[in-house]
Amino acid sequence: MREKYIVGNWKMNHKQEDISKFFEVFSKTTVGKNCHAWVAPQAIHLPFVLELSNKKCNGKLLVGGQNCCYEKSGAYTGEISPEALKDIGATFVIIGHSERRAIYKEQNSELCKKSSAALSCGLQVIFCVGETLEERESGKTEKVIAQQIIEGIKPLDKKSLQNIIIAYEPVWAIGTGKTATPSQAEDVHKFIRTLWEKEGLPNAHDLIILYGGSVKPANIGELMAQKNIDGALVGGASLKGEDFSALTIAN
Ligand code: 13P
Fold first, then answer.
1. Is 156 near ligand 1, meaning CB less than 6 Å away?
2. What distance in Å separates the CA atoms of residue 166 and residue 172, rounded to the nearest whole number?
3. What is the pLDDT of residues 26-71, one digit of tens each?
4. Long-range contacts of 116-120 (CB under 8 A, 24+ apart)
5. Which terminus of the chain is more exposed, N or C, with fewer CB under 10 A?
6. Tell me, what DSSP letter sits at residue 34?
7. Which SS3 state, helix, strand or coil, does residue 50 take?
8. Does the CA dihedral 174-107-45-86 come out positive or negative?
């Protein structure tokens, strides 16, 4: 049986008090035997979350960033250094979330550079892809995703690709309560795995592909039952310890 990855993307949410409450609940949770639980708090909270995770969770919760700079360090005021992320104990970073693509106009070429910097610092990269509603309705889903992978991932050093995870997040399903059906998600995941192989990228079979977009305890079971879905990238339902625990117990 393939292992599952449940990754909470906390986005720009939480105060320290909310995080403490999350840990009060999650620290008592027994994560499923097959499941890896990860969270990505906003950058300012990383040291706090890492401390709580180390003290209360005994290694069962890994912590990562939501974004990083395309350079390892240097004169980039306001940016997040991938080298510093690794140094404080983060193990992964999310790159190319649709909010960063849409709001901050991040392009595939820049996301490729960010991924390269993060990988070279020893971080795992969760690289996000996904189509808008308009693109889906005009039949462009596969074209858009292929372009995101070919421009964002393919130029990277092949050896480092074992540390890349893909998150398929249809933009129309994010924060809308409108989840892709398990078969819609499975179709795209299967497409991504096939594309990976076709483009000569290594280990298509082992590539971890997460689904994201309105995942919650009520629908995670049927999504995770799909052959090519290896986990979930979860926004809203990852914020509270109760919901996140339910997601990780179920897997
Ligand atoms: P929601 O789970 O709130 O739809 O957010 C998904 C997401 O964007 C995770 O990165």
1. no
2. 18
3. 999 999 999 999 999 999 999 999 999 999 998 899 999 999 999 9
4. 116/70, 116/156, 116/157, 116/160, 117/68, 117/69, 117/70, 117/71, 117/72, 117/82, 118/68, 118/82, 118/85, 118/93, 119/156, 119/157, 119/160, 119/163, 119/164, 120/72, 120/82, 120/160
5. N
6. T
7. helix
8. positive
Q: Which residue type is seen at 71?
A: E
Residue 129 has a CB neighbour count (10 Å cut-off) of: 25
Q: Which residue's CA is minimally distant from atom 1 of ligand 1? A: 235
Contact 177, 235 (CB under 8 A): no
What is the fold of 4-12+36-53+80-249? TIM Barrel (3.20.20)
Q: Which residue has the tokens 């970073």?
A: 93
Beta carbon of 236 within 6 Å of any ligand 1 atom: yes
Q: Whose CA is nearest to atom 5 of ligand 1?
A: 235
Catalytic residue annotation: 97, 169
Strand partners, 92: 64, 124
Q: pLDDT per residue over 182-226, tens digit each?
A: 999 999 999 999 999 999 999 999 999 999 999 999 999 999 999
**β partners of residue 164:** 125
CA pair distance 111, 100, nearest whole angstrom: 10
At 35, phi and psi to the nearest 5? -115, 140
97 lines ligand 1 (CB under 6 A): yes
